[in-house]
Design a protein that fits this description.
Rossmann fold; kinase activity; alpha/beta; disordered N terminus; 6-stranded mixed sheet; kinase; Glyc_kinase_flavodox-like_fold; Glycerate kinase, domain 2; about 400 residues; Glycerate_kinase; about 15% strand; Glycerate_kinase_sf
């Protein structure tokens, strides 16, 4: 494990707040929280525990707010290849969370086979339309895990817009077809006056260019060199006509490149703003209120490494905990940060499954039981019997 040199003062009592993200490929964030809670309750039966699974705008965003008490709404939409899928969105009064990965994510690809030229964000637009029909007026759009590179053209179609070729026929789905785009018919789009859409994710990235949706991202979605060239040409055509139709210059705005360009469509047609995902999610989940009076915050994710420092959930949780005056530690699958990097990120200690099980494959298969086993060390160091919380050793 990796620990800080000198932990801050903290209250001797109070609850333990469990705020982990998912262990990708093994456990959802709610499952991680449940296993941590089960282990801690066995080790310290009388310690009060509050479970608050978190997300940063990617996979698991809807599940995190549903676990916090939002209502699950299921709707049948089109997946990235056009096949019907049942997607979940979360609703709380006039607020809604729509997760792109639920409808248009890599995990929705049939058989896991990529479809870089034809994958569409249509289902995400259909989810947004459903949220509007439910009366949502503040919609958070999580944009991680996309399978598509269509510039959000499918999202516009899912909301009722039409993309037409030179013969007036509707374009087929996907980024490649955008090369044949001739005009847009937006008369079927909903009235968005009074609706605020917020993109939860990385505010960096533009639609076009070396780091854009095609050249910078499409390879991760299965595109080769020629396919990237085709997609980039389609996105350029789309940007020209979409900006003219929306009267909005959005292609170079931070966040336009998110999710294969879905960010661009949300900026241009929905008047969306972009906010870092974890900060926005912690606000929605009421983290500050739940951290009040806590003696310890436990966060985590499958792999904590230098990429995590760019704003992934555990780092956001640790910094929010520090602002609340509560020490934060992480329980992770694998640790890729030095002790100094963890300290700078406001993590007092990092505990990894690989500390107790060096076989990475077994860590993936048995993540739940191993997490419960890992909590013994956490309890011994941070919840010693009869003494204030704090690490027993460095």
């Amino acid at each position: 494990m990796s620990s800080a040199d000198s932990p801050p003062d903290h209250p001797p009592g109070g609850h333990v707040l469990l705020a982990p993200d998912k262990f990708k490929g093994s456990l959802t964030a709610p499952e991680v929280a449940r296993h941590l809670a089960a282990g801690l309750r066995r080790a310290r039966p009388h310690a009060p525990i509050v479970e608050l699974p978190v997300a940063d705008g990617g996979d698991g965003t809807a599940e995190a707010v549903i676990a916090a008490g939002w209502r699950r709404v299921e709707v049948e939409v089109r997946g990235p290849t056009g096949r019907p899928v049942t997607a979940s969105l979360a609703v709380d009064g006039r607020r809604a969370v729509v997760e792109l990965a639920e409808a248009s994510g890599l995990r929705r690809l049939p058989g896991g086979r990529p479809s870089p030229l034809n994958a569409t964000s249509l289902g995400t637009g259909q989810m947004l339309a459903h949220a509007l029909r439910l009366g949502a007026r503040r919609i958070v759009l999580g944009v991680g895990g996309a399978a598509c590179t269509d510039g959000g053209a499918g999202l516009v179609q899912g909301l009722g817009g039409r993309l037409l070729d030179a013969l007036g026929k509707d374009l087929p789905p996907g980024g490649a077809a955008l090369r044949s785009l001739h005009r847009l018919d937006l008369r079927g789009m909903p009235d968005l006056s009074g609706v605020r859409v917020i993109i939860a994710g990385d505010p960096e990235g533009t639609l076009l260019g070396r780091n854009g949706s095609a050249a910078g991202q499409a390879r991760r979605r299965g595109a080769g060199r020629e396919e990237i060239r085709v997609l980039d040409a389609g996105l350029r055509r789309w940007a020209d006509l979409a900006e003219a139709a929306s009267r909005t210059a959005a292609r170079d705005r931070p966040g336009a490149g998110a999710a294969g360009g879905v960010g661009f469509a949300a900026l241009a047609f929905l008047g969306a703003t972009v906010e870092p995902g974890i900060g926005l999610m912690l606000d929605l989940l009421g983290f500050v209120g739940k951290a009040k009076g806590a003696r310890l915050v436990v966060t985590g994710e499958g792999c904590l490494d230098v990429q995590s420092l760019r704003g992934r959930a555990p780092i956001g949780v640790a910094r929010a905990a520090a602002r609340a005056g509560v020490p934060a530690i992480a329980a992770v699958g694998r640790r890729g940060l030095t002790g100094e990097q963890a300290r700078k990120a406001r993590l007092q200690a990092v505990y990894a499954l690989t500390d107790i099980e060096p076989d990475a494959a077994r860590c993936m298969r048995q993540a739940g039981p191993l997490l419960e086993q890992l909590t013994v060390a956490i309890a011994d160091e941070w919840l010693p019997r009869g003494r204030p919380a704090g690490p027993a050793r460095m």
